[in-house]
Amino acid sequence: MKIVVLAGGKSSEREVSMTSGSKIANALITNGHEVLLVDLLTGIPNYSNFDSAYEKYKTDHYEYDVSETIPDSEKFLEKEIGLNVLEICGGADITFFALHGGIGENGKLQAIFDVYDIKYTGSGYQSSLLAMDKLIAKELMRFHEIPTADWTVVSDVEKIEGIDLPAVVKPLDCGSSIGISLVNSKQELREAINDALKYSDNSKILVENKIEGREFSVGILGNQILPAIELIPKSGFYDYQNKYQKGRTEEIVPARIADDIADRMGELALKTHQTLGLSVCSRTDFLVDEDDKIFVIEVNSLPGMTPTSLLPQEAEAVGIKFEQLCDYIVNESMEKYK
């Protein structure tokens, strides 16, 4: 098949995306596909169709690593779709979305591709939007009796009276733990809200009651529940650096946890996946407190595919190698268009 792996973009998560994209592209090349890795932000100047761009830039290996510093998305150009991206993707059999954050994960790009009748992997625009907006996702979880931490929405740092501390401060529309802070005082809360606003296109910030407990994640592949993976950072919490720098977090799969708790997390991951209308694959993050009460933290409609990402580790635990996983996502996504 002719496959564009679309990665990068102007999101603060562009480096994570480029790393995911390079690994996906290499796997698909190994599987015998004609693969072109394209940065959503820059596109490919001078080539407006897949075949000519592929002949110019084809390679048998891509390489990209996540640095410790979060990219400054403000320095990027205003445009969000680079030169010839739509034309090149339209000439492929399918586009593999290896995007994180921004228009690649919030449903906007999915909607554009639908308008241009371009095939792509993963969930559609509506469910992508629901999963990316943490507030909407949490409201849907609460409505469908999916346990999640209590929260407050803040838009003014001076209006924080009544918020319980300690708390977790998050942008409404970012992933990869970007802009997230754990706070214990009103001063820390104000600083964290101002920091979170730097990474959000939304003027509102989510402040969640902090849940003390163990961190887990459960992937969904089709309708298959993958084994839970436990995340044990060597210091701090599972933040951007601990996620993407090798050796900073111990990842145990299958998680060493009672079968009934693991089963319940799996059921909740599938229920959340279905509640948001997701398809092909997703990953749901959990906290389990000392009383074994389970809380859904958030849902990822485009799980990361970096060397340290969780979905590939969970898939491998049930015998699905990375190359098989990438082909599965392509084939499952193609089923949407039949």
Name a few traits of the molecule:
4-stranded antiparallel β-sheet, D-amino Acid Aminotransferase, Chain A, domain 1, Rossmann fold, 338 residues, Dna Ligase, domain 1, 6-stranded antiparallel β-sheet, alpha+beta, globular
Describe this structure in words.
The model is unreliable at 69-76 and 237-245 (pLDDT under 50). Strands 8, 9, 10, 11, 12 and 13 form a 6-stranded antiparallel sheet that branches. The chain has a 4-stranded antiparallel sheet with strand order 4-7-5-6, covered by helices on one side. A 3-stranded parallel sheet has the order 2-1-3, sandwiched between helices. The two termini are 16 Å apart. It is globular, with a radius of gyration of 19 Å. It folds into 3 domains: 2-120, Rossmann fold (3-Layer(aba) Sandwich); 132-147 and 212-324, D-amino Acid Aminotransferase, Chain A, domain 1, CATH 3.30.470; 151-209, Dna Ligase, domain 1 (2-Layer Sandwich), CATH 3.30.1490.20. It is built from 11 helices and 13 strands. It has helices spanning 14-30, 50-57, 85-90, 108-115, 125-132, 134-143, 186-197, 240-244, 259-275, 310-317, 322-334; strands at 2-7, 34-39, 94-97, 151-154, 167-171, 181-183, 205-209, 214-221, 224-225, 229-233, 249-252, 281-288, 294-300. Helices cover 33% and strands 20% of the residues. By secondary structure, it is α+β, with helices and mostly antiparallel strands.
